[in-house]
## 1
Amino acid sequence: MLASSLQVLARQTRGGWSYNRASLMGMPDIHAFQCPICGRQAQNAHHIVPKGMGGGSRKLQLNGVELLSPTIDVCGFGNASGCHGDFHAGRFSVQWSWDVEGSEEAWFSGELMRDAANTRKLWALGHYDIYDTATGKTITISGDDA
C-alpha cells in the first residue's frame, strides 16, 4: 500500500514539488519561546518548506486535503540573521520521521491525513530531525519540545 501511495505522491508532485518537500507539508508547527536550534529568544517563524518553493505561497492538495507548510519559531530577524538566516543560507535541513509503525502508510493513504493534517495530533506519531551541515549534528524535536 505504501508503494502505491508514494507513486500517487510522486505523480502529484511533478509540478515543482520534490518528495522531501512534499512529505513535510501538513506536518505540525514548532512553536517555542526559545529557538530550538540555539536556545536564544525565538523572534520569527520560518517556513520549513520555503515560500519560494511552495511553503507560504501555495498549498499542496493530496488525497483531497489541503496541506500547509509547517513553521518553526527561531531566532533572528527577517531572513538574514540568527538561525532564521542560517535556514535561508541552507545550513539546516529538516526531515519528519514517523515513530509509530503504520503511521506513514496511514498518512499517504489519506486516512490519517484527513484527520490530522496541519495539527498537533501528529506529534504523538513522529518527530523532526534537523541536520546542521556546519557541525554535522542532528537536532531532534518532538512534541514535548514544540
Note: The CA atoms of residues 128 and 141 lie 5 Å apart.
## 2
Amino acid sequence: MDKKPGPMGLAMESRTFGAPKFPRHLKSRPGPARPKKCGVDLQGRTWQRWIMLENPRILAFAGSLRAGSFNKRLVKIAAEGAREAGAEVTLIDLRDFPMPLFDQDLEDSDGLPESAKKLKALFRSHHGLLIASPEYNSSFSGVLKNSIDWISRVENAQEPPLVAFTGKTCALFSASPGWRGGLRGLVHLRDVLGNIGVTLLPEEVSIPAADELFDDEEDLKDHRTRKRVTGLARKLVEITRKLN
C-alpha cells in the first residue's frame, strides 16, 4: 500500500492487490454478447473472429442512499472518466430500487421483488461496474449488501448461478470524512465481489477528509485527486474492452 501526499497534508490511499484474475474462457461467460466478424476465405471456408468491444457498457452507482452522499458525488466523477474513455455509462441510484431485507421465506412465497429483477437486469446488460462505497462500522453499507444478496439469487432452473456478476469487471472507490477514506469497507466489498465471479481491478481509490474536498458544484477541488479517480475509471474501460 502506497500513501501519496494529498491536499492539506493528508495521505491519499492508493492500494494494489496484484494482477486481477481474468476469465480463461471469455466466449462462454454470461453477459452481453461479444461482437464478432465473419467471412469466407479464398478456399471457400468460413471464418469468424471476435472483435474488441469499442464501447463497453458500464453500470455506475454508490452504495449509499443519502442525498448528499460523498460517494454519490465521487461515482459521478468516475462515470465522467469512463465516458471520456469511450464507455456507455448508466449512472443509477440504489434509492430507486427499494427492496425488503433478504428473506428466503419471502423469496419462496413471492419470488424476487420487482426492484431486484430490474437491478439484476441492469447488471446482466452491462460489462463492467463502477462502485463508490461508504464505510459503515468498518464494512460496506447494508443497502449494498442487501442488493447483492437479492440479485445473486437464481430465478429458474435454466439460469446459471451468479449470472448477474460472473465475468463483470469492477473498479472500487470510497470517500469518507475520516482519515482512512473508507478503505476498510472496500476490503470486505472486494472479498464479496471476488467470491461471486467479479474481476476486480487491483487498484482502488479511497479519499479521506471528503467533507472538505468537494466544492459547491459537487466536484473535487484537488486536481490530482480528480485525476486519480478518472484515471482508474478509464483503466476499467480499457480492461473491460480487452476482456470482451
Note: Helices lie at 70-84, 104-110, 114-124, 142-151, 183-195, 210-213, 223-243.
## 3
Amino acid sequence: MKHFPCSPLVRQALLSALHTSRRRFLAGIVLAGLTGATSGQGAVWTVDDTGGADFIDIQEAVDAASDGDLILVREGCYSALTISGKSLTIQADAPPGTVEILNPFFITGEAISVSSITVGQQVVLRGLTTFIVAFTENEIASGVSDCDGPVLFEDCQLVNVSGIALEIDNAASVTLQRCTVDAGLDQYDAFINEYLQRTALTVTDAKVFLHETTVQGSLGPDAQQQIFGPVSPPGAGGIGILAASNVQLSAFGSTITGGAGGSGTVDFCFDGRDGGDAIRCDATCTVRLRDTLAQAGTGGAGGPGCGLADGVDGIDLNGPPASFETLTGTAHEFEITSPVRESENVTITYTGAPGDLAFLAVSDSLRPGFYLPARQSVLHMGPFLQILSLGPLPASGTRQLNILVPDLGTGVEALTFVCQMALLDSGGALSLTGPSSVIYLDQGL
C-alpha cells in the first residue's frame, strides 16, 4: 500500500487539534488525516461457511484476491488455506476462537501456509484458530517459508494436538502478537510403541518476534494401556522453541515452556521421561528476552515401587551462553480492537508505568521487524502517517480509550492500519510495544 504524506492543511489541523479534547482529536483528525491512504486499499471480500457472503471458504477468497485486498471471515469452520506471493489481510469478523481452520484426521498438509511473500508485500492474519489432530509423524499446523516481506499473526491460536504447531523457515520477519502456539500432547506411534515428542515452534534461517505470546511444547503422557495394542511407555516433554540455525528470536512479555515428561504411573513399571527444554539453539542463534518466562518441563516420576529412575528436568535456555541476552525493563501491553464499523467504538488498551507518556504511531503498512538496541524494542511499522500524543498513564498503569469511529466517507469500504505504542518514562527512556492491526469498516459490510 502507498504511503500517504500529510498535506499542509492536515499538518495545520494537527497543530490546532492539540488544543482540543483527546477523543475528538483521535476520532476526527486521525480518520480525516488518514482517509487519503485508501488510495492503496484493495477490495474487501467476505467469507461465511453458511452462505450469504462472497465465498463459503477462505481459500476461495484467497484465490480471487489481489495484492492489498482484505478478507473478512465470519464465524465458522474452514478448510486449510495457502497464501503464496500475495499481500493480504485476513481478519476474523467474529468473536475470539470462533473462526476455526481445521485439518481433519489423516489429512496431511498445513492448516495455514504462507510462502513467497516478496519485499513490499505483507501478510496479516488476525483472530484465526487452527486445530489439528493428525497421525502422521511430521504433521505441521501452520508454516511460513521463503518470505522476504513481513508476516504478522495477531490474536491467533495455533494448536496441533499431535505435532508441530508452527514452523518458520527462511523468513525475514514473522511476528506473533497475543498468540498461542501449542503442540498439545506427544503423538503415539503404534509401529514403534512409543510417544514422539513435539516441538511447538521450530525456526530456521529467520527473524521471529514474540509479543504477549504463549508457546508450549508437547506434554509427555504417562505410561498407559493402548486400546488396540500393548502398554505404551511414558512420553518425553516437547521443546517450546527449537532454533535450528541462523535464527534471531526476540520475545517480549511472553511465556515459553517445555512440556513435562510422562511418569511410569502406579500400574506400570517404566522410567520417568525427561522434560522438554523451553528454548534450544542447535546452531547459530541470537535470543533476546524481555520480561519473558522461559521455563523447561519437569521430568516425570519413575513407576512407584519399581525402583526406576525419574526423568531429568529440561533446560530453560539450552545452547551456547552467548546466544542468550536478557533485556532489562518491563514489556508493555497494547491492543486495538478490530474490525470496527462506522458508529461503533474502537477500544485502545495499553499499559506502562504510572506517569509514562504514551504516543500512538500509525502506519498503513508493516515493515520487517527491526531491533533497536538502545530502546530494547522492535520497530514493526512502515512509514508513519501520524504520531499521536495520548498523555501520561494514570496511577493504575493501564489506560483504555473508547473512541467513536465516524463515517469513512463516500465510496470507502475499509481503512487498514498498523499501530505501535511508544512509551516515554520519567528518565527519558523510550520503548515500543508490539504491533496491532486495526480495520475500520463501512457500516454496510
Note: The domain at 43-327 is CATH 2.160.20 (Pectate Lyase C-like).
## 4
Amino acid sequence: MAKITKPGSGSSELGTFLFSPVGTEENGMTLTVLSALARLGLDPWQEAARLAELPRCAAVTRLSGIIIALPCRLWSDADAKAIANRLVATLPGKSASSASAQPDAARATRHQAVTVVLLGFVFTWVMFNLANHSRIIPDSNIMTSPTIQTSPVTHGTAMP
C-alpha cells in the first residue's frame, strides 16, 4: 500500500476534486477520486496537485487512464474519459468557465482588430470622397465644354 501524505496547506482547494464521486461500484458504494487513487497506490494529494498543474486536456487524459487502470474496471474507455472530463472541472483553475475564458479573450481581441480595420477603411473612404468632392464643387467660373459640330455624311460624294 502506498504511503499517503497528510493533506497540508492548500489541500482544501483539492478537497472538492478528491471527494468527488468517480461512480458507483458493483456493491452500490460510491467510489471517490481519493479512494480510486489510493487503490492504485498513488498519493491522492500529490496526484491531485499534479493533475491541477497540467493543461486541462492532459489532465483529462491522465485521469481517464487512472480510471481505466482501476482493478474493478467498471467503466469503458469512453465512459472513463467523460468521467475524467467531469472530475477535472472540479480541480482548481480547471472549471469550464476558466477553460472558455481564453477563447473568449481571443475572440474579443479579433473583434477589436476587425473593428479597427473596418474603421480604417471607412476613414480612408471618407477622406478619398472628401478630396474628390472638393474638385467637383460647381463654380460660376467653370466653362461648359464646347459642342462639337458634325456635318452630315452623304454617301457617294467626296469630302471637301
Note: Residues 64 and 78 are 9 Å apart (CA to CA).
